[in-house]
Amino acid sequence: MVARWKTVVLTVIATGALAVLAVILIPPAYQARASFVTNSASGSFKLPAGMSGAGALGGIASQLGLGATADPTESPDFYAELIKSRELRTRLLTSRFPDPRTEVAGDSVRLLDLFRIRNKDPQRRVEIGLKLLDQASNVSFFDKTNLVKLKVNTEWPALSAQVANRTLGLVSEFNREQRTSRARSNRTFLESRVRRARTELDDAEARHRNFYDQNRSWKTSPALVFRE
What we know:
Elements: H1 5-25, E1 30-37, H2 54-63, H3 76-83, H4 86-94, E2 96-98, E3 108-110, H5 122-136, E4 137-142, E5 147-154, H6 157-214, H7 222-227
Antiparallel strand pairs: 1-5, 2-3, 4-5
């Protein structure tokens, strides 16, 4: 160190200068964290071991939906992939937030425009924005607790929280759309089954009336009694 004191001093000065430049040029990052628990209750149904007719009853239970496993669209893994999906993140990029660069109330800006992307091509801007958003956020999940965690980093603390909240809002919108779609499908299915059951009942009643018309003394015939 004594022999090369000039090199040591220059190294210390250069390191300090680089640190000062980094503090000045690199913007601070504020992290917001959000989490939620998925509703992945399992609907599995198992018959006791050794129970007589377990195979037949298991088949009936499966037909009735009692043997179905948990819905995969309610797993924490699914929601983590949903948050990282292109469709949801594109919606997030085009969502408007209060402009953190100005103090004027009511000013809003798209999240995409806050990334300072110089490319003017709209499609290319979205592609770059998706990559930057992927770097600025992180999603993790835990199967044992059904917990999904989200972290968002931006230059502004309020924006980080708003982006995290907007992400959870988009997840909630997906859930509402999914439930509505399922309810519509279930209603259509049940209505078709009701119409089919009504038709079958009308046919059975018509055959029953026809049987009485053609067999006035059916009670005196064992075969006709069995048929009736």
